[in-house]
Design a protein that fits this description.
The protein contains 14 helices and eleven strands. The protein is α+β, with helices and mostly antiparallel strands and 475 residues long. It has a five-stranded mixed sheet with strand order 1-5-4-7-8. Strands 2-6-3-9 form a four-stranded mixed sheet, with no helix packed on it. It has a two-stranded antiparallel ribbon with strand order 10-11. A hairpin with a 2-residue loop joins strand 10 and strand 11.
């Protein structure tokens, strides 16, 4: 009997112990702990275990704001201070929505439109692993605005209905004038940005068009040549600590070398085996994928800054710009003009155009077609590398997939301007660049590239050969 009671007590003790073991973790789930601490870091690179919330705090004229306090709140929280270049960064481990705040006094004293921005982090989505916050953009908010503020504004609006009509008319006129002035400034700023972007797009599209004109090959790996140029400039400036000019020359040399290697190892043997342009195009798709993953493996998924200093901005009428942008645009114009002169006023340029028009006839007239194609590949990849350097400076960084993102715009530019014509690539790229940037005035910014592709489709419906292309008889 005593043994039976002892056994029953042991069973009850075991049952109670199991119930307590189950209740303890349930209590932790029912009463979650407070927000964890994010980590304030100098530089943040997103991985599978952490995301990044970072930015460069600049005033309205793009000058860095140093020593400002930046506060992160949400799933995790932390506080940091901007460095001498205005940079700040947080490393977070939890996915979700975060709010970034700076002091209202800092925002007002530096002409910023707001002091609060909300971002979202999702480590499983590559495009959402990093959130870059810009307080000098108009999409930030003032932390003082709330439901009460809206209510009081509504009440004051109702009170104004009983006031004199002259007051109402003058306030409406002032509002309309301010809105019109703001739209006009945005119009000129977007037009300027579109022209700059179009020039850089033209620089990378001219080489693609030369390759198509001489070989009939549409290269899907041309975008990776752009990325390679930007990444090699990053290696030169940030890893080898060379001056920017030396790093740019190094990047162009590497780009030209890869053009020579590609032609000698891949494209020349395929041409000797009489492999058609369609099969070669499929090879370029595979090469593009291989290069993209190699870039991501060696350089990671984060954006790499070629230069770390923030250029001092200045005004030219209604346009805000900086010295680096103007120099990049000038380099693009000079290089495009030089390539055009090379094609139309030199012996080798005339030979290149002859191969583009009719390779068999050019060979029969004594032109070394293979030598011409080899030089075109070297020139094409060198131009792509240069455009990668300039684009990396203009966009404040280069990523492993920058060229892939720009590839469809390159194809649009060369098709719109006329396949195989260098002037067509320039004009088509300028149209695509301006339309893409100007369309953000009336449609969401994420859809600006779609508007450029829509223009391409409309033009090709009425002129399939492009602006400078020649109509060809088929059949």
């Amino acid at each position: 009997m005593a043994d039976a009671l002892s056994t029953a007590r042991r069973h009850r003790f075991l049952i109670l112990t199991c119930m307590l073991a189950m209740l303890v973790p349930m209590a932790f789930l029912a009463f979650p702990s407070s927000a964890q601490a994010a980590e304030a870091v100098t530089t943040c690179n997103p991985t599978a275990t952490n995301g990044c919330v970072n930015g460069i705090l600049q005033d309205a004229s793009k000058q860095p704001v140093a020593g400002a306090t930046v506060t992160l709140s949400g799933k995790e929280s932390a506080t940091t201070t901007t460095d001498s270049t205005g940079k700040w960064a947080f490393s977070v481990t939890a996915d979700g929505s975060y709010t970034v705040t700076i002091d209202k006094s800092v925002a007002s004293s530096h002409g910023l439109p707001g002091n609060t921005a909300t971002v979202s982090i999702d480590k499983s989505d590559f495009s959402k692993q990093r959130a870059v916050v810009r307080f000098d953009k108009a999409n930030v908010a003032d932390s003082s605005s709330s439901g009460k503020a809206s209510g009081s504004a509504s009440s004051s609006s109702k009170a104004k209905l009983g006031s004199s009509s002259s007051t109402t008319d003058s306030s409406s006129a002032s509002s309309s004038s301010g809105s019109s002035s703001n739209f006009g400034q945005r119009f000129w700023q977007q037009l300027y940005s579109g022209l700059i972007f179009g020039l850089m797009l033209a620089l990378m599209s001219v080489g693609m068009n030369l390759v198509y004109g001489t070989t009939g090959l549409s290269s899907f790996s041309h975008g990776e040549q752009v990325t390679l140029g930007g990444l090699m400039a990053y290696v030169g400036t940030q890893m080898l600590h060379w001056p920017l000019i030396v790093s740019g020359i190094f990047a162009i040399a590497i780009g030209a070398l890869t053009g020579l290697i590609q032609n000698e190892v891949i494209w020349a043997p395929l041409r000797r085996k009489h492999v058609g342009p369609l099969q070669q195009m499929i090879v370029t798709i595979g090469l593009s994928m291989v290069l993209q993953y190699l870039f991501q493996f060696f350089f990671g998924g984060s954006t790499k800054g070629i230069v770390t200093s923030v250029e001092r901005g200045f005004q030219i009428g209604p346009i805000t710009t900086d010295r680096a942008t103007l120099i990049s645009a000038a380099i693009a114009i000079v290089v495009i003009a030089t390539v055009t002169y090379f094609l139309y006023h030199t012996r080798f340029g005339r030979a290149t155009r002859a191969v583009s028009d009719n390779a068999a006839l050019a060979a029969a007239s004594g032109i070394n077609v293979e030598h011409v194609v080899r030089i075109v590949w070297i020139l094409s990849c060198a131009l792509a590398a240069l455009s990668g350097v300039l684009m990396g400076i203009y966009l404040n960084g280069i990523a492993w997939n920058t060229g892939a993102v720009l590839l469809l715009l390159m194809f649009s530019a060369v098709t719109l301007g006329g396949l195989g014509t260098a002037p067509g690539a320039l004009v088509g790229a300028l149209i695509i660049g301006v339309v893409a940037d100007m369309s953000s005035l009336i449609i969401p910014n994420d859809m600006r590239y779609a508007s450029a592709l829509a223009i391409l489709i409309i033009v090709l419906l009425f002129r399939p050969q492009g602006i400078f292309g020649k109509a060809q008889r088929v059949g």
